[in-house]
Write a structure and sequence with these properties.
With 472 residues, this protein is of the alpha/beta class. The protein folds into three domains: 125 residues, no CATH class; 181 residues, Rossmann fold (3-Layer(aba) Sandwich), CATH 3.40.50; 69 residues, Arc Repressor Mutant, subunit A, CATH 1.10.10. The chain has 19 helices and nine strands. A five-stranded parallel beta sheet has the order 4-5-6-3-7, with helices on both faces. A two-stranded antiparallel ribbon has the order 1-2. It has a two-stranded antiparallel ribbon with strand order 8-9. The chain is flat. The termini are far apart. The N terminus is likely disordered.
């Protein structure tokens, strides 16, 4: 009796481009559906409906899988498999009957972007990744593998946005990751089937701020339009009661009453309001009143507000002024050494000793944008870490634009410049003027260690001690 004929197929292997696309898509789903936690191999197996042994083959990058299996993996995460995502394994055929003999990954290990790529082939894949990385400017895209999670902040934000009538304040110096967090918070809200509206105040024309009534009408029109509702502003606007009450009645009795699900409104870059004090003095108290009304009104409870601003706006404000002081405050922290090492690995850099990460952190602190810029030049422009540090300490190097922006702020505020000069000379202090300390902290130029105040990093100390000595 003849043995049944074993069906053989030509297998396929993931390319570096395919790995990048698939991992980015998986990471986006983890952020939205799993509170940012990594899927285990078994959880992925359940989602894709492919056994863990087959997934082990896929992640190994040196064992082929059936093309249909690869297509199933991509489709599960809303991707369409393209010819750039895989190559044909010409060395061996894929035999489905031998699948059970393949070793599986340790199921206790959490699936992660860098850990699934191991061995000499992985090194080759990472070496070819440099063409994928664009210059780090602006928020990290939702599907990017270069986004580093800050779970304590993200989970708090995700939990808070589900609370009726909540307000979240996201504030930090520029380039700390506020907009990147907003992208993920909005994605999470959409996953909950909430309506979402993002208003970037820098996109609003000066005409919108020309007077109070015009501003509130622009605001209401934008929210209604984003919801797909006919604005009908003239029908619901009453000049006799004023623009603030008209705005409140319009939102509550026209928009919120007819929607059945919560709406998240993100107000990004609200520092723009302080160019128009009359608008700011009226708008922020109105937001507070909506927040307080939500304690007892079911319509206002549908409204969830996220207010985002750079703490740099506080430098030009009176000490008693505040952009906003209600709701949950979220201030983004710097990256830890472990996070810097993780990001370096995602750039294909093999930083396992901790020495390189410590060296970069000593130079720029854990500042997310400065870390990403440094890693971009190291991974994609062929710069060595030693050269990067040497140039930065001498004249700012690749960080010149960032430093010039801070330098401009210091020049415009002589008292703050004098206080910073004093700190740079002594290298630490515990008795700076509280007002100037607050402004320096708003710019991100200092850090606190117990009761001591120190320059944020070596880069700031080396650059500004030379600059300030010329004018102070």
């Amino acid at each position: 009796m003849k043995s049944p004929k074993i069906r053989r197929k030509r297998g396929v292997l993931l390319t570096s481009a395919g790995v990048k696309r698939l991992q980015a898509a998986i990471r986006a789903v983890e952020v939205i559906q799993n509170n940012g936690d990594r899927f285990t191999l078994e959880e992925l197996s359940t989602r894709v409906k492919v056994c863990t042994k087959t997934l082990s083959r896929l992640w190994s990058l040196n064992a082929s899988v059936d093309q249909r299996t690869l297509k199933l993996c991509f489709n599960t995460f809303d991707l369409e498999l393209s010819t750039e995502d895989y190559t044909i394994d010409r060395e061996s055929d894929f035999d489905e009957t031998t699948e059970a003999l393949l070793p599986t990954l340790d199921r206790k290990n959490i699936y992660s972007w860098p850990s699934i790529i191991k061995g000499s082939l992985a090194e080759e894949q990472y070496e070819n990744f440099e063409y994928c990385w664009s210059y780090p400017d602006g928020p990290v895209p939702l599907d990017s593998p270069l986004y580093i999670e800050r779970p304590a902040v993200e989970k708090l934000a995700y939990r808070e946005i589900t609370q009726p009538g909540c307000v979240i304040r996201i504030n930090a110096p520029r380039e700390m990751g506020k907009s990147s967090l907003v992208l993920r918070l909005l994605a999470f809200a959409r996953q909950q089937e909430y309506y979402t509206v993002k208003l970037d105040c820098d996109q609003m024309d000066a005409l919108c701020f020309s007077n109070l009534d015009h501003f509130f009408r622009c605001f209401c029109w934008r929210v209604a339009t984003e919801l797909g509702i006919d604005p009908q502003l003239d029908t619901y606007w009453d000049e006799e009661i004023g623009s603030k009450l008209s705005c409140s009645f319009y939102l509550k009795n026209y928009l919120l009453r007819q929607i059945k699900r919560p709406i998240v409104i993100v107000l990004e870059r609200v520092g723009r309001f302080f160019e128009y004090p009359q608008i700011a003095q009226e708008f922020f108290p109105l937001l507070r009143s909506w927040y307080e009304e939500a304690r007892q009104d079911v319509n206002w409870q549908k409204l969830r507000l996220v207010v985002v601003y750079s703490t740099e706006v506080c430098v030009s404000l009176d000490i008693n002024q505040s952009p906003f002081n209600i709701g949950l405050p979220l201030r983004l922290s710097e990256f830890t050494q472990e996070q810097v090492e993780e990001l370096a690995n995602r750039h294909g850099l093999k930083w396992n000793s901790g020495k390189q990460a410590q060296q970069l952190i000593s130079l720029v602190g854990g500042h997310p944008a400065l870390i990403r810029i440094g890693l971009y030049y190291l991974a994609c422009q062929g710069m060595t870490l030693e050269a990067l540090v040497q140039e930065a300490m001498a004249n700012g190097g690749i960080y010149r634009n960032h430093l010039w922006r801070h330098w401009e702020k210091l020049q415009k505020n002589p008292s703050m410049a004098r206080a910073y000069t004093e700190l740079l000379i002594t290298k630490q202090s515990s008795c700076l003027n509280p007002i100037e300390t607050s402004k320096l902290d708003s710019l991100g130029l200092i850090r606190f260690e117990g009761d001591r105040i120190l320059p944020r990093c070596q880069l700031y100390h080396a650059y500004f001690v030379k600059q300030l000595s010329a004018i102070v």
